[in-house]
């Protein structure tokens, strides 16, 4: 065809299911030597589901009340874990109380006022400020994490009232994608996740990743990217969440997962995987290199 090589590279990327926002993206992708991937929604399907509902004695709530309270607080969040909590409440036919003063802290969780009381739902890191009061909750967190779950804690007026255990399925093409990216860059990709070490390492082992950075806040993901770039590396970040947006922006190249992706991630990324296949990523890296050879 008579199409200029870069334009035809963009068109080919589209055929592989990746929407590149500009021709520059294809040039940048061709230079990538380090790949960092997010876990939830990126290596996993992004449709996690609630497996455990564990009220704590101090809260005096039954399972349904605990789940309903968490879902009411999570209702306005687009985080995959929040959607799992709301879906579990719906499946049980629970009616959710309206939440006021909703705020979300990326990488941590949400806060809302429900029936005049402050409810926080999110990472076990929320227990850190509670000193002695959190001991029972910490034990439950460890039990859930040992079982490979992501533990979500629920606090009401600063008191831990219960936990939810959440599981997520690995994408079927995750291991093949990691193997292909390792071949292409000569280095195994790195996992950057806000989740706990045990869940992260268990999943990493299944897909062939050994470098795992867990319990990262959005700014920690950025710091990892900046560190590599300062060493002269060209980093590709792949993510889906609001929590990934700063790292997607900081990287030499950022690709967002389209289906589960948050609006902010889709806007910030240089390219978007529009077909829900992780293998589109090594395919488009390979393509970008072919395009560059045609241009130079
Ligand atoms: P990942 O990097 O695996 O995609 P995130 O950075 O999105 O994870 O979240 C990190 C952690 O913060 C989660 O594992 C969870 O503990 C907690 N978290 C963040 N947002 C929420 C939320 N809306 N509901 C519950 N937990 C949340
Ligand atoms: Mg994610």
Automatic annotation (TrEMBL):
What domain of life? Bacteria
Cellular compartment(s):
Cell membrane
Family per UniProt? Answer: Belongs to the cation transport ATPase (P-type) (TC 3.A.3) family. Type IB subfamily.
What is the name attached to this protein's record? Cadmium-translocating P-type ATPase
What species is given as this protein's source?
Streptomyces alfalfae
Query: Covered range within the whole protein?
Result: 302 to 597 of 654
């Amino acid at each position: 065809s008579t199409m200029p090589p870069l334009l035809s590279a963009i068109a080919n990327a589209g055929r592989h299911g990746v929407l590149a926002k500009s021709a520059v993206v294809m040039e940048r992708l061709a230079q990538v030597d380090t790949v960092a991937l997010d876990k939830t929604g990126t290596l996993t399907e992004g449709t996690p589901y609630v497996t455990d509902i564990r009220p704590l004695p101090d809260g005096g709530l039954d399972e349904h009340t605990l789940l309903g309270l968490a879902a009411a607080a999570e209702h306005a969040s687009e985080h995959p874990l929040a959607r799992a909590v709301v879906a579990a409440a719906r499946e049980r036919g629970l009616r959710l109380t309206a939440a006021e003063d909703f705020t979300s802290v990326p990488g941590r969780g949400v806060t809302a006022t429900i029936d005049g009381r402050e409810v926080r739902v999110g990472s076990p890191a929320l227990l850190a400020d509670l000193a002695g009061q959190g001991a029972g909750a910490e034990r439950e967190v460890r039990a859930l994490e040992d079982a490979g779950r992501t533990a979500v804690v629920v606090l009401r007026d600063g008191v831990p009232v219960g936990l939810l255990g959440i599981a997520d399925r690995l994408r079927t093409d995750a291991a093949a994608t990691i193997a292909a990216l390792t071949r292409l860059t000569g280095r195994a990709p790195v996992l950057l996740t806000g989740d706990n070490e045990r869940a992260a390492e268990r999943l990493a082992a299944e897909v062939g990743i050994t470098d795992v950075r867990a319990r990262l806040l959005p700014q920690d993901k950025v710091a990892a990217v900046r560190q590599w770039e300062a060493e002269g590396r060209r980093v590709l970040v792949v993510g889906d969440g609001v929590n990934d947006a700063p790292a997607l922006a900081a990287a030499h190249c950022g690709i967002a997962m389209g289906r589960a992706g948050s609006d902010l991630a889709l806007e910030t990324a240089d390219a978007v995987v529009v077909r829900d296949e992780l293998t589109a990523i090594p395919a488009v890296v390979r393509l970008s290199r072919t395009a560059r050879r045609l241009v130079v």
